[in-house]
Amino acid sequence: LYGSKFHGLRQSRGQQGMGISAAGMYGQLTPARPMRILSRIEDEKRASEMLVSIDTSRNRPDIHRKRRVAWRKRHGTRVEVEMEGRYSHGEHSVEMYLKQTAIANPHVTLRFTNPSGKKLVFRRSTDVLPPLPGRIKPHPHGVELGQLIQMLHDTPSRTLRRFLEDDFSRIGVKTAAKIIERTRGRLTERSNPRRIAHSQATQLHRAIRREKILAPRTDCLVPIGEERLLEGLRKELDADFFFVVTRPPAVYRGNSFQVEVGIAWGRPGRAVLAVDAEGRIVRRHKRKSAKIGPAEKRSAEDPARVLRFANRVPLLYQRSSCAITKSVKQTNWRGYGLRQQKGSLPVAPMVIVAHVASVWVPFTSESKEAVSALPEITHELVLALQEAGRKLASHIHRDEQLEREYEKRTYIESYLPHVGAGLQEILALSDEERDRTVERLDTILHTSRQSKAKQT
Question: Domain range for residue 164?
Answer without folding.
Answer: 140-210
